[in-house]
Predict the structure.
Amino acid sequence: MVACGNEPEVIEDMGDASFQLVNQDSTEVIFPDDFSDKYIVMGFIYTNCPDICSLITQNLVKIQKGMNYPDDVQFVAATFDPVRDRPSVLKKYGNAFKVGKNFTFLTGDSTEVFALMDSARVRSQVSMRDTTSDGRELYFINHSDKIMVLNKEAEVIFEYGGSMPMIPSLVIEDLNKVR
Amino acid sequence: MRFLTIYFLLGFLLISGCAEEQQPTVNNEIVERVRPAAQGGTTAAYFVYENTYPGTDTLRVLRSDIAEVIQVHETYKTEDGMMGMREQQEIVVPEGEVVEFRQGGLHVMLISLKNELAEGDSVTIEMKWSGAGQVQKKLPVQP
Ligand SMILES: [Cu+2]
C-alpha cells in the first residue's frame, strides 16, 4: 500500500475519464474534473447498508477530522445504488454522519454511476431480494469494500479495504507522505 | 407492527468465537448502540445478549416500534472477495453463552425507519426467546 520511493506507484489513471453525476444537493458534479486541484479520498457505499458501509463512511469522516479538515483534500462517498440513493437520501444520510464541508456524496443516472464504478474497479451485485409479509420489496448488495486516494492529477495512488478500523491512520500517514 | 418470526435452523455460527475468523473488521469492543439514521433509512443495532436461561435458547421473535422491518443479518465476505449481508434466520444460544451483535458480524437490521434517529434518542428492541420469554433491550442512539 505504501510506496517506498518519493512517488507512489499509479494504480489507475482516472484523469482522462469524466463522469457526469450529481451530489447530495442535486448539483451537477463532473468527476474527477471538478476536484482537479485537490487530493481525493473516496469511498463506495449504499445507504441501506448500516454495517459495513457505515464503517466506510465513518472512516472517511475520521480521516477528514484527523487531518483537521484540510482544504486541499476532497472527501467523496459514491453510491452504487443510484436508484434508491437519490440526492435527498444521501443528504439525510450525510447529516446522520455529521459530514462537514469538502465532503461530497455522488449519485446520478445508473449508466454514469456504473461507468464510474467500473473505472474505479468497484464491483457490486444485488444479493438478497426479499419481499416482506406486508409486500415490501427489500434488496441488499454485495460490494467491494474500498477507500482509495487520488492525487491532483486524478491518478489513483492508494487503495485500502474501506471498512477496517486501522484505515484512517493509514490513509492519513500515506497522504502526509505525498502532500 | 407485526412480529417477524424466525424459524430456520442455522444456529452454530452464533456462538462467539466460531464466527470471528470470517469477520476481519471485528476486533474492538462492542459498543452497545443503534447508529443514527434518517427517517425512511436503515440502521443497525449492536449489543450482547447473554443466555441466563437454564438450557439452550432460541430467539423466536424480534420487534421494534421504530422500524417497519427488523431482521438479523450477518456480514460476510463472498467467495470472490466482496462484502455482503445475509439474513440469519435462527439464533440459538447455549446455556451460559452470549450472542454478540457487533459491527462487521451479526447485527440487528432496523429497516424503513419510521422516525429519524439522532444521537441522544434511544431505541427499544423486544426479543421473544423460547426459554427466557420476553426480553427488552434499550439502546442509545450514537455513531
Ligand atoms: Cu445488515
